[in-house]
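Researcher: Structure prediction, please.
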Amino acid sequence: MQTLIYGSYILVWPAITLGMLGMISYRVLRDYREAKRTNTDMV
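Model: Predicted structure follows.
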């Protein structure tokens, strides 16, 4: 039972990391499209 709990705990971190990376990528892409649409700089 402990092995299952430890394994689940270890496998949660890649899922959280993947979710955060996806969220950051989506937001940056959205900002890039908005800047391109309004003809402004990203930075």
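Model: Residues 33 and 42 are 10 Å apart (CA to CA).
Researcher: Thanks, that helps.
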